[in-house]
Amino acid sequence: MREFVLAQTIDLLQQMAVRIKELKHAPGDDDAEAIHDVRVAIRRLRQCLLVFSKFYPGDSWKKLRRELSGVMKFCGAVRDRDIAIGLLTESGIAADSKLVRSLEKERRAADRDLRRSLERWKHRGMGKKFRSRLEA
Whole-prediction pTM value? Predict the structure, then answer.
């Protein structure tokens, strides 16, 4: 069973890496779908780590869940603004209104924070580190 769990976990890590790579290459203003995909990948991996925690060595899975939670917060900040902007424009608020422009500015800042977070993740080699810890 442990081998199956590790194989599934590694597969989910790889899927998340693919989604993050797609997000990195998506233009900043047109990445809502890519952010959604990253969030889904993170939720799946976090749930896998929780459900199968007894199959990982020690508490190796806990640190990964915490790290993923941080990335998820950055994704959520961008996604929340996307949703708010969409709801406002669908309800008839002009796209050039002060409120929408303010949300767009916040979204750009949140997007920059997200991308910096993902760069730090990559620079620190977190995916490889966690993979090796989970396989130990």
Answer: 0.82
